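Hey, I'm writing a tutorial for new members on how sequence and structure tokens pair up, and I'd like a real worked example in the thread rather than a made-up one. If someone can provide the structure for the chain below, I'll link this post from the tutorial.
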Amino acid sequence: MSRSTEVSVLTRFCRVLSLLLKKLLNFVTMRKLLTRLINRVLLSKLFTPAMGGEAEIHTEGRRRLVVGLGNPGMEGTRHSVGMAVLAALAAHLGVADRWRGDKHVSGEVIVVSPVVLLRPRLLMNLNGVSVAKAAGKFGIRPEDIVLVHDELDKPLGKVVIKHGGSARGHNGVRSCVDCLQTDVMSRLRVGIGRPAGKTPVERYVLGRFSSEEKKVLDSVLAQSVDLLLSQLALQDSQPPSSPAGGGRAAAPRGKETKNSSSSSPAAAAQRT
């Protein structure tokens, strides 16, 4: 093969590769835009059931909302570990049998005044619709919401609280940011680690925990509950911020609160 032929083949290859990359970028962009559009449509009055007397908006006191992000019907998967944490929290509070479906928030809720627990009944990419509806119904500010979700960039056994900031690629968090139109919500990020070898990320996160991982999972759920209780207690000790004030001074945006495997809930909330 002559040099000119090699150059021609390489040029064609680069053109094809460039075209494929552009198409991929357009697909990803269109997917994000479509998801955002669906979020907004589901939040519209057309898809929001009218609230009768049994579903009045609650505004008394300062409530907190703890949300377990995930996919309905896939509670045992890595991507839905947030729901497993919420189930563990409900059990710890002695209210595991009080989950009730609520069509007005597109999810299941437990009210343990002043805390509301929420498990969305929409797909992960649309979880924000459920969160926004629940925040509206119960009169909860975005800064008083804690999102519990899986985290690829942290190993299994690592649990941290993050105060506000970007979604960092998590579709469930992105949906919440889009629907609430703010990113001040705290997040409990539960590490699940990244897949080994050539296993696709999507297949990995939608898969169930291995037998070895399940040996660690009980400890992870216990640590997560301790950290959530500490976070809720920390919020109770702080005065409510003004509606336009965004995040709290005691919790700098983007800061993480790391867990401690052998510490008490109070110690687990110490910043590093």
